[in-house]
Structure formats: structure tokens, C-alpha cells
Amino acid sequence: MQKLLIHGGKPLHGEISISGAKNAALPILCAALLTDESLQIGNIPVLRDIETMLTLLNQMGVSVMLSDHNASDITLSAKQLNNPIAPYEMVKTMRASILVLGPLLARIGQARISLPGGCAIGLRPVDQHIKGLQAMGAEISINHGYINAVAKKLQGTRIVFDIVTVTGTENLMMAAVLADGVTVLENAAREPEIIDLANCLIAMGAKIQGAGTDVITIEGQSSLHGAKYSVMPDRIETGTFLTACTATGGEIRLNNTSHQLLGAVIDKLTEAGAQINVNHNQIHLIMNSQPRSVSLRTAPYPAFPTDMQAQFMALNCIGAGTAIITETIFENRLMHVQELKRMNADIEVEGNTAIIHGISHLDGAHVMATDLRASASLIIAGLVAHGRTTIDRIYHLDRGYENIEQKLSILGANIQRIN
Questions:
Q1: Which neighbouring-strand residues pair with 149?
Q2: Which of 45, 13, 403 lies closest to 244 in space, CA to CA?
Q3: Does the model's pTM come out above 0.90?
Q4: Do residues 411 and 13 lie in contact, with contact meaning Cβ atoms separated by under 8 Å?
Q5: For residues 90 and 97, is the Cβ–Cβ distance under 8 A?
Q6: Which pLDDT score is estimated for 117?
């Protein structure tokens, strides 16, 4: 099993490029199921979750062609779609596998999908997906851990989500583009990844209005065509590197990204003391003092993202003052607290709230990653700690960060991967 070794105490300096967004790329890959023509997708990150999704699509009959010239360009063709099954072995590590359900029902009227897995950060039920598809006329049952769904033809309707759900919004949006009539999604998620998927679907011939608001209207079409589309930059990777530099000190430039995706995060980093300058595709951060502690509360976009909570926990561990972090999205997303405390962090947990008392420094220690974003928080903690930090179970990290240790090395970090 691989590990990361980090010798902390070095400020970050330099310039790197941000990869494509995993959370945008996964649903866009699934959009290929909606047409028998080719979908060419650019700026795809090289990640384990992407590899898993491509393997899943391929076993369904989707041909996958990688570019000879650019590893981030992929062409998919679902012309021979013949096996609408997502088996447990393929989806147990990745919750995004549920995103094939809506496109399969819309295109060929049937699907058999294993209930998904992923990081153990909370329940994340799929009932909103099922409820919406049933409202569109699908017959769905759950037996032996599988969702079995059939539909002669999905019908447009009005769907009101009980809770804001990103993957639920994406799944029903993809189902609706081939349904008869008009579908209106209310209390829809507003994340930038929703807008990116909508823009890809529109490029394929879909008619969608309101993506990025809480009411999305989709006028179903008889078919979609192929297209060429490039995935948006990863706002969570961007935020992770900005937070790392705010914690360690230094000066970095991030290219191929956008500050418009990160309003709440940039506001909090500025509050912590970072100097941030932006243009249309670059973010420049300078940090030359101890960070100030910043309190925050996670909530759906455009509020502070749950996927950045763990990284800010690490930042607050060495911040001046006391911070309160409240997690409202996932009930189990404070598991990194115990690992940070192994590094001498002063943190108290009360329910879904953590109280972090900043200290002068963390101590390097042997720690274990509990989920994807917790992995990033431990890296940040290791970068600021005195001595050596060893991080186990970094397979979580490889699900969502492309070459993170190489990028940190470019910025001057003393970090290496070992077997």
C-alpha cells in the first residue's frame, strides 16, 4: 500500500496549472449515454474515479478512445449500448455511478444499477433520484442491493426536490432531455458543475434553461447529437492549493482556473490574511504572516462548500485565535479531527461542530486518511508540521487529485510517495 511522506516547514512558491473538475467530468462522461453519436470531451483529469467511470461505461458497450496527443482528451461513443448494468464490483467505491441511471432510462428504457458506495462521510441517499424518475413514469424496485428500473418513455413533469442534491439534479436533468414534454426541477442544486453539465447537454442539442438557479426547465428532445466539449477547472483542487499556501506561507500562481467558482472560499482565505489577486484564468496568492482563525458553516452552493471544510480545519489548527466549523451537509465529515489531534491539534467536537484553538505549530506524525478531502487536510497539516508526517491510505486521495504530490513538489514542498 502506498503512503505519502512529508517533511514540513517549507513555504510554497511557484506556478502550476489546475486540472479539470472531477465532479463535472463524471456526469459529462455519463452524458455520452444519451446519443448514438460521438462525444469528444477535453480537460478530463487523470483520476481513479474517472478510470472507474470509463471502465463502467465501456462494459455497458460504450467505446472509449483516448487521444494520442493529449491524455485529457477522450472520445466516447454509445452507439452499441447493449449492457445497461452497473455491477457492485464496479460501483462500490464511487457514488457517482448512480449518474448512469437517468441517461440509461431516457435512452433505452431500462437499467440495473448497484446501490453506490464512495467515501464514508455520510448516508447520501439516492431516494431523490428514484422519486424523480418515478414521477417521470419509470417503474423502479430495489432488490438484493440493486436498483431495477424500466420505462417505456419518460414523461416531462414538475419535480420538487425535498433536499438540495447535486447528483440528483444532474441525473434528472439528463433523464429529462429525452423525455416527452417539459420537465421543471425545483429546489435544484446550483453548483457550477450543474451549469457545466447543462452547457455540455446544450452543445448536444438539449434545450435547458435556468441551470445555476434553483429552478431548471428542460424541454425534451427526440434525440441528441454528438458534440465537442471541455470540462471546467476543478474549484476544489484550486481551493486546496490556495489553502495550503495560506497555511504554509509563500506565493503561488494557479493557472487554468477561475476565481468566479470560489467566492466563499476566497472570502475566507482573505479573512485569514491571504492577499489574492485574480484575472480571468489565473489566481495569485501571497501569504507572509501567520493565518488568522476563520469560522465557517458549510451549506449548498454558493455558500461555503463541504468539500473544503477539512482543508480549512487544517488551516485553523495553526491559525491565530479560535475558530468554529459547523458541518451541515454530511453527518460523518469530521473524521479527520482525530488524525489532526495526533499531530497535536487542539480541537473539540460537539455534534456536527468543531472548535479549533490555534497553536504555534503541529507535530509531524503517522496518520491515516479517512476520505478524499480528509486526505487533503492531512497533507496541508503535514506541510506546516515540524518534522516528518506519514499519511496512510492515500488511495482516497487518488480518487480526486491529479498528481498532487508532483504539483506540490513543483511549489517547493518536500513530499514523496512510497510503497
A1: 111, 140
A2: 13
A3: yes
A4: yes
A5: yes
A6: 56
- Is residue 276 within a helix (H) or strand (E), and if so which, with residue range? strand 275-278
Contact 397, 11 (CB under 8 A): no
Instruction: Say if residues 185 and 170 touch (Cβ distance below 8 Å).
Output: no
pLDDT of residue 121: 36
Amino acid at 119: C
Residue-wise pLDDT for 131-185, tens only, equals 999 999 999 999 888 999 999 999 999 999 999 999 999 999 999 999 999 999 9
Residues (pLDDT < 50) of the chain are 118-123
Instruction: Answer for the pair 415, 390: CB distance below 8 angstroms, yes or no.
Output: no
List the grid coordinates of 54. Answer: 470509463
In sequence order, the β-bridge partners of residue 254 are: 16, 283
- Tell me what pLDDT residue 118 has: 46
Identify how many contiguous H helices and E strands the chain contains and give both numbers: 13, 24
Give start and end residues of each alpha helix (H) in 324-392: 336-341, 372-384
Q: Provide the grid cell at 277.
A: 489577486
Cell 458549510 identifies what position?
298
Query: Are 343 and 364 contacting, i.e. CB atoms less than 8 angstroms apart?
Result: yes
Q: Could you give the C-alpha distances from 113 to 31, 50, 79, 219, in angstroms and in order? A: 16, 18, 20, 26
At 412, give phi and psi (nearest 5°). Answer: 100, 0
Q: Which residues contact 125 (CB under 8 A, 6 or more apart)?
A: none
> Do you know the residue count of the chain?
419
Contact 28, 42 (CB under 8 A): no
CA distances from 120 to 63, 117, 354, 373 (A): 31, 8, 19, 11
Q: Give yes or no: 30 in active site.
A: no
CB 399 within 8 Å of CB 372 = yes
Could you say which of 119, 200, 245, 317 is catalytic?
A: 119
- Among 174, 184, 122, 113, smallest CA distance to 146 is for 113
User: Which of 41, 103, 99 has the alpha carbon at shortest distance from 232?
Assistant: 41
